Amino acid sequence: MTALVLAMLRARWRPAVALFVLAALASAGVALAPRYLDRTEEGLIADQVAAARPDERSMVAAQTVERNDVGDMDGRFERDGARLLDAPGFSLVFSASFTAQPADRPAVFLDGTRTVAYRDDVCAHVRLVAGRCLMSQGDAVVTGETARRLAVQLGDPLSLSASAYDSQSSRFVAEGSPGYLTVVGIVQPVAAAYWGRSSAEGTVFVDRRTFDGFGRRSELETIDAYPQDGAVRAATLPRLRAWLDRRAAEGGDPQVTIGLVGLLDRIDAARAAARAPVPFAAAPVALLGCAVLLFAVATGARVNRFEHGIVALRGARRTSRWVLAVAEPALPVLAGGLVGSLAGAGGVPSALQYGIALAAAAVLAAAVVAVRSVSAPLSDMLRRVDRRGARWRSATSEILAGLLAVVAVVHFHTSGDTVYGVAPLTPALLMLVAALLAARALPIVAARVAGAALHRGRPVTALAALRLARQPAGRRLLIVLVVAVALLGFATTGVTVAAATQNARADVAVGAGRVLSVAPVTRQRLLAATRAADPAGRYAMAVVALPDLLAVDAPRLSTVAIWPAGAADRAPADVAGALHPIAAAALAVLRGATVSFDITVTRLDELSPELVAFLAPQDGTKGLEVRLGRLQPGRHTYSGAAACTAGCRLAGLGLDLPRTSGPTVALTLHDPPTRDWRTPPGGSVTAAADGVAFTVQAGGRADAGLLQPAGIPERIPVLPTGPLPPDGLLGSLDSTPIPVAAVGAAHTLPRLGGHGTLVDLEYADRLARDSGVTDAAEVWLTPDTPQSIVDALTAGGLTVTGERTVEGERALRNRSGGALGMRFSLLAGVAAVLLGAAGLVATALGVNRADLSALRRQGVPARVTRRVEPAATLALVAVALVAGTLAAAVAWLAIGRYLPAVDPDMAPAPAPLGLALGAAAAVLCVSAWLRQRLAAG
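Above: the chain sequence. Below: its structure as tokens.
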């Protein structure tokens, strides 16, 4: 029997090779998903670890250790502390340090202290800039910055004594015997996980003998744990989680700080985002691979059915016929499945398991198909007719497929964020239903085309259409090709839209082509320096970015910022003009060691409110609240001490009015620093002969008694993404509520996205009461900003601490889990088209050309009969391309735009889809040509 099976394979080697290739492609396609996820997740983990802060990658245990009764440092923490941080894959570094001061200075303030430290293997983790590292007792090494601060050079002596804080004098005083050191090396720390949360700046490093030689009452001992190479990987995450759970179960230890939890949570989120889209692409490819294999096996079985009928006619036993029928397709499928699994898995065990599982399923399915083909009645096998009941079973299967597709769509939209059940099969089921409809329509349309072609005298077209109308194999092949094309179209659309979504989100997240982060600076300095660096407003814009508020130099907004398309109901230029309709008046600036105000009070209504001046020093120091005393009837001068020698901006005058409605205060401010003022609702301001007259009324508002220099609109124009508070007050730069008015509506704003408010920086700064110093200062630049602008910003007093670019943010987001997960679908789409093309070629040997031969004998020219099969195949490919494109569109509209990492409102770009479909058409046309060559012998 074995020899007979081998002889059959040798005699019909072409179908065997075709099955081998199909099985290899199908198994490799299935194994590709876990392999891709494995590689992707490892890359995501590496990116997350690299991007994490040092405190997120490391753990530290620390304890202040005192001298024991015999005068030695208690060694229990150094000896036993390692067990607190025994995480798998982490290395431990012990260090000890104490605060010291120059031995010749008995008392110093904090800025006069130094840190003396011993750290395990410090010399292996620094780069020598000058001199050498620690070798003998008394040696010390410092960084270049520390040497500058200590005013020492290579070879200088350094004498230090341990320090203790004296609470009575608020200074540090020397204690213990001094240590005499020599600076033998200037070093630079090597950027490595070794340093963890520690810093080498301001520290004098010595060896253990030198360290123990200092007289000190106590020392701070720490054990740092940092990950070794490969400590945080997909394979090690379960062990790390188990260790963290064990530590949590044992109870928190105040000595231990573990920052690893946040990093692992982000890794888990990135992995979940990468995995989410994969089932939607992997499941259809697996099903398509099985379908193509079964189709090829069924085609071969149909071709060989007459031969098996002859064998049965000669009296062969049924079991022998089954073995012969099963072995011929099963052996190539098994061999191809194993080879494809090994090639697709690429050494990933889970991927190999999936590939082998599909190969085993394919072998079993092939066996079932083969056994069914030789179990038909002998008369059916000899006459080469299909088994009875195929039509009603086909119709029933199609109805069930349609119902299952409806259930899958409903399940997808009601399953929330978790993909389970039939949800991953939803795209494939929708495409299958579309393919079944196309296959049902094909005979009807083909028959009409054939009739019309005969009337017009086009025999090739007529005969090709008749073949498509009459042969069931063509309809089954059409289903395969439609699903393959639809998978590629769906995948291309998903990847294109996901990339566009990530790019759009990157544009919003950054806000401009380049964004410079600036060290803490006053808002006025930020505005002045930016305007001076770019007087024309062509390249740079000052920005203060708070969580829900973006304050910008509005006249430059439309030129510098990246404005999302359709983000607001007004054009960017209109928004810029509406946010800053008038130029702000000059600042009200007071100078001197005291501030005073000449005020006449004409009405108090039995109140005695205290007068407070809110001042913002222009040198950036903390804002001042100068209490000037309680108001009294008549004309008086109200004064208070204020450090305003360098100038202070008058942010406002406040009266602490009660929250009860009714009482009114009227006063006149003589010789005011400005005549342009604003009052809260219910108040009034009028010009007086030598000043300004105010009337304010007590009420429920916190700012009922606030008088502020104006020079800006009464209500600050803002562009919000939602409704404003009912009272029209909005928290501003210093959280002080300011009156605002919406100049439009937006659904997306630069940096803020869908939640927040856009306001003019200059206007908002005028109403702030603080000093104006902000740690959220930024300068937004256009992508083509010349370096001279950046140099001018630095020359203007701004310190650039960091930079973000749109291109960098786009690249980062396109490496995110969701984007990488969507990218797998494109690989799956390519695999689907290759499977369809292979199926097209593999079924060439099942083509029945008997009818064409009969026509040739009846006188139809050879030039006509030769062109019929190629025309039919190309027509099938053309129908598959059209129907597959429509099926992809249906699947995308139904569920694709709701997939992770995809903006449902984002329209797909037509160019990538056209390229993908064009490539699919080329591959299928080449396969059609190969099919014709094989069918012709």
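The CA atoms of residues 677 and 710 lie 5 Å apart.
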